[in-house]
Design brief:
The two termini are 48 Å apart. 7% of the residues lie in helices and 36% in strands. The protein contains 5 helices and 43 strands. The chain folds into 4 domains: 122 residues, no CATH class; 109 residues, no CATH class; 163 residues, Sandwich (Immunoglobulin-like), CATH 2.60.40; 208 residues, Immunoglobulin-like (Sandwich), CATH 2.60.40.420. The protein is mainly beta and 667 residues long. A hairpin with a 4-residue loop joins strand 2 and strand 3. It binds 2-acetamido-2-deoxy-beta-D-glucopyranose (5 copies). The site of one 2-acetamido-2-deoxy-beta-D-glucopyranose has 5 residues, from loops. It holds the Pfam family DM13. It comes from Lingula anatina. This is Protein Skeletor, isoforms B/C. Keywords: Membrane, Repeat, Signal, Transmembrane, Transmembrane helix.
Length: 667
């Protein structure tokens, strides 16, 4: 879940280019019969035409290519017919704003081509064409070198960018001992913690296991492409440690990722508008792929009806497939002996728990979950010979049983929320047809919009209070930072993790009330300033981890340099009046109650950013990760804070008073 959220925030901030279709060749000239479209090179053999239009009224029209060996620079009868997007050599019919891929006949590559035309052979008429640019180089998979070898025995052969979303990593070695290592991508000159997890070769987002020379393929999640990132690394998120990485060159000329690749040999039928089943069979096995717009914790169950004459739940043999947020894609062989919860082997039970025990017949499980779309692929034998499995016959139509519902905390299928309507059947052995439209989740808003939190400027005051408060539900810490949250966050001047803008050379004072009880770690949140966007410095145990981040010390109230400061605990607490789902922070904050410890004093942390302070640093908790957020360090305040000087003058009095009451000396 966190990964998705991070993806959402990350994607919305990298300014996504319009999705990459391939290398642009040009637009079709509109000469006749409403021919139009934009032509791209997919790779050395394939062309893609988006927005393709043709009224279908030409008597004898084909896709037609001219080779460089052809003397004429523009379309003429010397061209060569190529098959349509379905591989059919027949006369073209009508297209309406279609997105199609044409594959050149064997023996030809795009580099030999001078033009593509929609050409009427009978009348030697050009309905529309595009001329290829001179010295056109079609996209192809590109070698980007091997992983640098920093830690944990990470090494690989040269990595290939197969297409805009896919990496081929050969001869991968890694000792598997990192506590939370992931494939990790992001922007900037080198790997850092502001990256994003990439699922492993099985589509799983669990921590990486050991590799002993395997060759694997991994794919960027969501809409992310290689053009949006600068590096691919293996990264330990618990320690912000880079085990090794490879930089992604700019201006890669690689094929676009084509989602339905590999599906071309699959059948597909929509079961509902939001639930599709795709399959392919060989003599002994069937591979099924279930794709659904379902809740993240829901399962998709699909299989054969309990009856040969209609859809029936009792006696049905189904596979229950879901995406487990901890362990990744799952698919389990079930048998339904009764319409009840599994109890003593009776009811909706996994085969292995059935009263007539069967075995787990489902294998090769893979899948992913993105933008509210869950996709699980698995394989089973056509005929297992077991009582708990029905044989899948290829020579006839078979009645189906399917359902969608929640997965229980014990990882069992709970009672469905949607199921087969009426009787549905499929012939698994039919000639291959892919009848599914692309499933897009229009309802997904990529996580909830973060609360808008007013930025605080040092121009409006030089003093900041630091307290603890709730991290907020979907719109709070997680949505603002794209990071995981521990349930609490730092509140500065009673705002949840506001961004601060501070000016170099000015003195600022943080009055720390975030907890000083080091006997109770949950109430001990020393305040510090660092270039580490995660914080929690005391959790870094090795010199390498500590050297990877910087602390910007402050001064305590007697002007001694200190790395961090503690102060009594003042915590904003959720009450029965808190609107957890509030759309604004103000609305949420209204329902909180402040509770301050009677023990301890306010900690004072003076801080003066200087010319060596980077433009972005973070206020953080020294002992816990993911509590604080950004400080923008500037040479001059942005010029929008008219009248701020009087405010500033006012605050010195308040500070003076405050420090007086607290028994501190004024400075
Ligand atoms: C059929 O598919 C299964 C599962 O993918 C595979 O193990 C088996 O070798 C295949 N059989 C043939 C004859 O291709
Ligand atoms: C933060 O709060 C302090 C104390 O309430 C106040 O003096 C100061 O002006 C505030 N800072 C800003 C930037 O608003
Ligand atoms: C900031 O504080 C230091 C140390 O107390 C002092 O020497 C300096 O003059 C102060 N600077 C400003 C701009 O107030
Ligand atoms: C400030 O820090 C110094 C050095 O750690 C320490 O000796 C001093 O007592 C601290 N002052 C206060 C008021 O805590
Ligand atoms: C305050 O400190 C005293 C003495 O250390 C302790 O007995 C008491 O429990 C503390 N009170 C709170 C609310 O932490």
């Amino acid at each position: 879940m966190y990964a998705q959220l991070a993806a959402a925030v990350f994607l919305s901030t990298v300014a996504l280019a319009t999705s990459y279709q391939g290398k642009l060749i040009g637009s079709l000239s509109e000469l006749a019969h409403q021919v139009r479209g934009t032509v791209y090179a997919v790779d050395e053999k394939r062309l893609r035409i988006t927005g393709f239009n043709y009224d279908g009224k030409g008597p004898d029209a084909y896709f037609y290519i001219g080779l460089h060996t052809n003397p004429s620079a523009t379309p003429d009868s010397q061209g060569i017919k190529i098959p349509d997007e379905k591989g059919s050599p027949g006369i073209l019919s009508a297209y309406n704003n279609a997105d199609i891929i044409l594959t050149l006949p064997s023996g030809y590559t795009l580099q030999q081509i001078k033009w593509l035309s929609v050409w009427c052979v009978q009348f030697a008429a050009d309905f529309g064409h595009v001329i290829f640019p001179a010295n056109f180089v079609p996209p192809r998979p590109t070698n980007i070198g091997e992983f640098s070898r920093f830690q944990h025995g990470l090494r690989s052969g040269d990595i290939t960018v197969l297409d805009a979303k896919t990496f081929l990593i050969p001869a991968l070695h890694y000792d598997g001992l990192g506590p939370a290592a992931f494939f990790w991508v992001g922007t900037g000159p080198r790997p850092d913690s502001t990256g994003l997890k990439v699922p492993d070769e099985d589509g799983s987002l669990t921590r990486l296991k050991r590799y002993t020379g395997e060759t694997i393929q991994i794919r960027l999640p969501g809409d992310l492409t290689v053009f949006d990132i600068n590096w691919l690394s293996m990264w330990c998120i618990d320690f912000n440690a880079n085990f090794g990485h490879v930089l992604i060159p700019a201006n890669l000329n690689v094929p676009p990722y084509i989602a339905d690749q590999g599906m071309s040999s699959m059948n597909c039928e929509p079961l509902t508008e939001k639930f599709h089943v795709a399959w392919a069979v060989n003599v002994s096995h069937i591979t099924l792929e279930l794709t659904g717009i379902i809740a993240d914790e829901d399962y998709m169950a699909f299989g054969l009806s309990g009856s040969d004459t209609g859809t029936q739940m009792i006696g049905a043999d189904v596979t229950v497939a879901w995406y487990d947020s901890q362990t990744g894609p799952r698919a389990v062989d079930y048998y339904m002996s009764a319409k009840s919860q599994c109890s003593n082997g009776v009811g909706v039970c996994p085969d292995i728990e059935n009263s007539t025990p069967g075995t787990e017949s489902v294998n090769d499980v893979s899948g992913d979950q993105m933008n509210g779309i869950t996709r699980i692929r698995f394989t089973r034998p056509l005929n297992t010979g077991e009582a708990t499995d029905k044989p899948i016959r290829l020579d006839r139509e078979m009645y189906l049983a399917w359902a969608i519902g929640p997965i229980n905390p014990d990882k069992r299928a709970a009672y469905h929320t949607v199921r087969t309507t009426g009787s549905q059947k499929l012939q698994f052995g039919r000639n291959t047809r892919y009848n599914c439209p692309t499933l897009t989740n229009k309802g997904s808003n990529e996580g909830k919009a973060p609360w808008t939190v007013k930025k605080l400027s040092g121009a409006d005051g030089k003093v900041f209070t630091v307290r603890i408060g709730p991290a907020g539900s979907d719109r709070g810490y997680k949505a603002i930072t794209g990071r995981t949250s521990w349930g609490i966050a730092l509140y500065i001047n009673d705002s949840i993790i506001p961004e601060l803008t501070l000016k170099r050379g000015e003195n600022y004072t943080f009055l720390v009330e975030s907890g000083d009880s080091d006997a109770n770690q949950a109430k001990y949140h020393p305040f510090y300033i660092t270039d580490d966007s995660s914080g929690g410095y005391s959790q870094y145990t090795t010199p390498a981890q500590r050297e990877a981040v910087k602390i910007f010390p402050g001064r305590n109230e007697s002007q001694h340099p200190v790395d961090y400061q503690v102060g009594r605990l003042c915590e904003w607490e959720v009450t029965s009046n808190t609107n957890i789902d509030a759309a604004t922070f103000d609305e949420f904050f209204k329902g909180l109650r402040l509770r301050c410890s009677v023990n301890g004093t306010v900690g004072v942390f003076h801080w003066t950013p200087d010319k060596n302070t980077p433009d972005t640093v973070y206020y953080q908790c020294y002992t816990h990760r993911f509590l604080g957020w950004k400080i923008h360090v500037v040479d001059d305040y942005p010029t929008t804070t008219a009248g701020s000087s009087s405010v500033a003058a006012g605050y010195y009095c308040i500070l003076g008073l405050l420090l007086f009451f607290l028994g501190f000396q004024c400075w």
